[in-house]
TrEMBL record:
It is found in: Cytoplasm. HAMAP family: PPAT_bact (MF_00151). Keywords: ATP-binding, Coenzyme A biosynthesis, Cytoplasm, Magnesium, Nucleotide-binding, Nucleotidyltransferase, Transferase. The lineage of its organism: Bacteria, Thermotogati, Deinococcota, Deinococci, Deinococcales. Residues 4-133 form the Cytidyltransferase-like domain. The record marks 16 as: Transition state stabilizer. This is Phosphopantetheine adenylyltransferase. Its cofactor is Mg(2+). One of its GO terms (molecular function) is pantetheine-phosphate adenylyltransferase activity. Pathway: Cofactor biosynthesis; coenzyme A biosynthesis; CoA from (R)-pantothenate: step 4/5.
């Protein structure tokens, strides 16, 4: 059975990676699909191309995972690609209500099943939006995201990271 793990992945986090790695052990093939909407383009930190590049690098060690993108309804993508099952990660009960609604709607409008995989508790507080927020102030996000995301965030906020590093350096240097 094949599966699709859809999301915005702006950028992919360690929580996503945890869910993806576990899904890759359960399904023959998992497609990580960036769902994008041209009208919402400006709301993302990373462009679609940047997100795809990060995802390819972050998943290169997983042989049965591929990366794709789609600008439309998830159920249409599932039907076009004959992909089988939707995977979504759950971090906490607070995710459940929203995810339950989406899963029911996707089954109603496209007869597609959703399988939930619980992210490990150590990632329960990690989200792409929180990671973006911390990185925008030059904070340490290295544990919360795969290396490819960390590198891309440091490039995106290069001026903030450089300034912060020079402040830390001047505090630790004697005299
Ligand atoms: O990572 P996210 O932002 O939680 O992912 C949400 C996503 C992209 C999976 C969801 O918004 C989605 O499926 N969007 C595609 C459009 C769609 O099918 N919407 C109807 C769901 S009822």
């Amino acid at each position: 059975m094949n599966a699709v793990f859809p999301g915005s992945f702006d950028p992919i986090t360690s929580g996503h990676m945890d869910v993806l790695t576990r899904a890759a052990k359960m399904f023959e093939h998992v497609t990580l699909t960036v769902m994008h909407n041209a009208r919402k383009q400006g709301r993302h930190l990373f462009t679609l191309d940047e997100r795809l590049t990060i995802l390819r690098e972050a998943t290169s060690h997983l042989p049965n995972v591929s990366v794709d993108s789609f600008g439309g309804l998830l159920v249409d993508y599932m039907a076009q690609q004959q992909k089988g099952i939707i995977i979504r990660g759950l971090r906490a009960v607070s995710d459940y209500e929203y995810e339950l609604q989406i899963a029911h709607l996707n089954r109603q409008i496209g007869e597609v099943e959703t399988v939930f995989i619980m992210a490990a508790t150590r990632w329960s507080f990690v989200s792409s939006s929180m990671v973006r927020e911390i990185a925008s102030y030059g904070g340490d996000i290295s544990e919360m995201v795969p290396r490819a995301s960390a590198r891309a965030l440091k490039v995106k906020f290069a001026d903030v990271y450089t300034e912060r590093e020079s402040q830390v350096h001047s505090r630790t240097m004697p005299g």
